[in-house]
Amino acid sequence: MIEEKIYQEYNQWKETYKDLILYLKENDSLLLVRYDYIFEVLDYLFDKLIDDPTYTETENEIFVTGFLYLKSEFITLTEILNKYLNNSYEELNKKATTINLLLNVLDLENDFVADNNVDTEELKELKNLENDVRTALEKKETLSDEYYDRLDKVSQDLIGKVSEYHSVHELFLEIANELELI
What we know:
Structural class: mainly alpha
Shape: globular
Oligomer: single chain
Distance between the termini: 29 Å
Largest sheet: none
């Protein structure tokens, strides 16, 4: 059964974060690129729920998944803004590359923490990388290519241990493409 309350919550959530979302859009932020397809799909499905009586349970599951992901991501962005950037959207945008790296690390941690095929050493390396990136944010340092190389290595190792892996971003890119939104 499709619970319409989540759609109202999405609308309220967008209202809560409208200033941040608008700032990211107006400044063509690298952070927004991370969420573009998810927003496109969610807005399409939101409109479809209102306009189309053939809205399916699968579409609802896609909506809920995307919305919960965005909520989690924006909680993390808010934490970063508060803890490291003095609530400055401008600083958030300036540090977008570093923040995207941190968010990618957190995504991998979340995706693989419960996977029995994953070695605890690789998860430990992800946690170490997360801590190093957070330290760099705290010290207002610019990250060297070494950090990105570390993420590439550990992500290749992790992904190589599972039969099939698709990030939320890949899935929503695929969905947006299927819906002809891009």
